[in-house]
Specification:
Elements lengths: L1 E4 H6 L14 E2 L5 E2 L3 E9 L6 E10 L7 E2 L2 H6 L3 E3 L4 E5 L5 E5 L2 H6 L10 H26 L1
Length: about 150
């Protein structure tokens, strides 16, 4: 399914009364089941100008924490005749004009997203921070020694 997370739904200024009931639960990655708040069909535009593809897509609205606003599921990917490569951060789709178009993003941009910053509470993150501080300390020490020479 296509998933629209509740925070994004609220930002679109849509109301709970716009949702249709969903009588089934959705199983998450951790195996727990959650009932969607409902489902809604919305207009979606992928791409811009001549590269645009306009469709109507059904979304399950989920009130769970996520780093994403939307998860584009197989129904939408099939509807736009899309091919996705996660490795290449790329999606190719067919525009309204019938041409193959591409959307490509970079991992570098994704890492700049504030939601994707590592948690300070996790041990591995503290280890990484300790390594960075040690590297900075060694660099400063080397600069000091070369200034003395």
């Amino acid at each position: 399914m296509n998933i629209l997370f509740r925070d994004a739904y609220t930002c679109l200024k849509l109301q709970t009364k716009d949702l249709s009931l969903v009588p089934y639960s959705v199983t998450g990655f951790n195996g727990s089941a959650t009932y969607p708040d409902g489902k809604i069909t919305l207009p979606v535009t992928i791409g811009k100008d001549l590269a645009a593809r306009n469709i109507m897509a059904e979304f399950l609205v989920m009130d769970v924490t996520s780093v994403y606003n939307v998860i584009m599921g197989r129904p939408m990917i099939h509807q736009i005749q899309g091919v996705v490569s996660i490795y290449h951060q790329l999606m190719i789709y067919v525009s309204d004009e019938g041409h193959f178009k591409r959307i490509q993003r970079s991992q570098e941009v994704a890492h700049k997203c504030s939601y994707l910053k590592p948690s300070k509470d996790r041990r591995e993150d503290r280890d990484d921070e300790d390594k960075e501080r040690e590297k900075d300390r060694i660099t400063k020490k080397q600069k000091g020694l070369s200034a003395l020479a």
